[in-house]
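FORM 7B - TANDEM STRUCTURE REPORT

SECTION 1: FIRST PROTEIN
SEQUENCE AND TOKENS:
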Amino acid sequence: MAIFIANENGDWWQVDGDHRVLYVLDTDDLPEDVAAEWADENDWTDEDTIMEYGKMVPQLIVTDYARYEK
């Protein structure tokens, strides 16, 4: 299952199960169901979001990879 998160700057990321960044997403590139439900969220540390996607993805992961840009 793909994991979608956003940092405090509103940049979207997709990561795999090992927390490796696959690529940066524009909001328009998010899957329709993800965008519809979570487009207004600024980050993905919300407990409901973590439970929805079944894996905790620390915000630190995004910060660590902030230097990578598409």
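SECTION 2: SECOND PROTEIN
SEQUENCE AND TOKENS:
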Amino acid sequence: MTNKSQMLRQRAPLPNKAARQSGSGISSPLPLHSTDLHDDESRGKKYSELSRNHTMFLFIQLLIAFTILFLVLASMSRGRFLDNDSFHNNPLQQQEVNGPAYRQHEHIIPRVAYFTYSYNILNTTVFRELPEDEVLANNVRNTIALHPGTEFHFLTDDDCLAAIRKVVDMDKSSKLRKLEDYFLREDRGMIKADVCRGAALFLSGGLYFDVDLQLRMNVWDMIKHDTEFVVPLVHKDHKVKGAF
């Protein structure tokens, strides 16, 4: 019995080093189970998915921000004649047309038309200085309605001045350089309108209508497709015969 006990004690495995040191506060490493690995893998996938979602969310936000910025800058640039050589400052600009007859512009004269006044009488946010401005505004709207498919622009004094300056810069003529000062000194609206429309039509072509000109039909229907210049004459009872 004693011999067998001694043999069993001799055959008993000795504790490993980590186990012998457990009494000193150092524990043996815990074995890894398959469930732990599965949990770590799941957490990694969730973190990766959250990261992708967060990145996509930031990308969409940036895309929206750049889109809004582009639209704001585009809207600010509309109507700035010196920046883009356009007169896009008319809030009632006509959209595409009624019927196939106007869908293809066949005239040599560009299908563009202009009004001019000291300020934009079509803009209801601007204080109308004179009672008749409402009547003039309605007349302008009637002219626009008679010309579907035509791009209308309303030039204020500031827009006119910008057009005049551009013409002067293009020509470099000493006589034309006086045109800006003349426009600034002139008080009569009809004279300022004559100067303004000359500059605008020189730069882009098209038609010009006085705000008090009452039209009864579409002017394009009376203009031949190969006509390069057209001007109305005064009626037969006008005090200045043959004027236009």
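SECTION 3: OBSERVATIONS ON SECOND PROTEIN
Residues 105-222 form one domain.
The CA atoms of residues 108 and 226 lie 6 Å apart.

SECTION 4: SIGNATURE
Preparer initials: ____
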